[in-house]
Amino acid sequence: MISDNVRRVRENIAEAAIASGRSPNDVKLVAASKTKPVDAIKNAIAAGVDAVGENRVQEMMEKHSFDAYSGAPLHFIGNLQSNKVNKVVGVCDLIESVGSPELLRAIGKRADSLGIVQNVLIEVNIGREQQKVGVLPEQLDDVLGQASDINGIKVLGLMAIPPFYDEIERICNYFDTMYKLFVDMSVKKYDNVSVRLLSMGMSDSYTEAIRAGSNMVRIGTALFGER
Predict the structure, then answer these.
(1) Among residues 38, 81, 127, 167, which one has the fewest Cβ atoms lying within 10 Å of its Cβ?
(2) pLDDT tens across 101-133, in order?
(3) Domain that holds residue 213
(4) Looking at the 3D structure of the chain, how many domains does it have?
(5) Lowest mean pLDDT among 29-43, 89-103, 155-169
(6) Are 13 and 23 in contact (CB under 8 A)?
(7) What is d(CA 124, CA 138) in angstroms, rounded to the nearest whole number?
């Protein structure tokens, strides 16, 4: 049952949050619902997830037409191409996966044309993987500076997907590095920027991510089962 899975994940989140000196309420649970049917998403929302995250624009639009996300904020957590920006801005409450200044500007242009402000996170390529999008750590300060000059956006924090390793300790090293970067960026003073969310950790690593400082986790398999 999805409700049982949500309760179990909440318990694990609470334990990890308390171990890191925080309240369980400080950590947001995003249900990563790629390939999952509308009924499963509605069950997860009814069970109390904080938000729903989708990876694919077309799939998101189809589910949205069936009112799948009613009752919870909608996040876009996948690789967003510039030619799909118009279909996401104003529909999603938060775009977590903004990995370049060019994408920031495209989002800002669309949001400004709609008369809204689109909340976003900057995706950091913390593992420096060539096959992944994202801003390199040393570029982040400059990108936030560029964001301050873009109308129509509000940068609320950072997101990262570390490289996958069988040894969780190696993944934790990336979590620790991301948290230090998050702390450094949170004290920067830029217009349109308020770094207060750190989205990292998925089904196989969310408790470790929370202990390292994450306050938003994206959980799919542990809630919905295997794809």
Answers:
(1) 167
(2) 999 999 999 999 999 999 999 999 999 998 889
(3) 2-224
(4) 1
(5) 155-169
(6) no
(7) 10
DSSP the chain: -HHHHHHHHHHHHHHHHHHTTS-GGGSEEEEE-TT--HHHHHHHHHTT-SEEEES-HHHHHHHHHTTTTTTS-EEE-S---GGGHHHHBTTBSEEEEE-SHHHHHHHHHHHHHHT--EEEEEEE-TT--TTS--B-GGGHHHHHHHHTT-TTEEEEEEEE-PPP-SSHHHHHHHHHHHHHHHHHHHT---TTEEEEEEE---TTTHHHHHHHT-SEEEESHHHH---
In angstroms, the CA 181 to CA 169 distance is 19
Cα distances (angstroms) measured from residue 108 to each of 99, 133, 146, 186: 14, 19, 12, 21
Instruction: State pLDDT tens for residues 57-79.
Output: 999 999 999 999 999 999 999 99
Residue type, 190: Y
pTM above 0.90, yes or no: yes
Partners of residue 92 on adjacent β-strands:
89
Q: Which of 224, 225, 217, 158 is nearest to 12 (CA)?
A: 217
* β partners of residue 167: none
Residue 35 maps to which CATH number? 3.20.20.10
Distance CA(159)–CA(146), nearest Å, equals 18
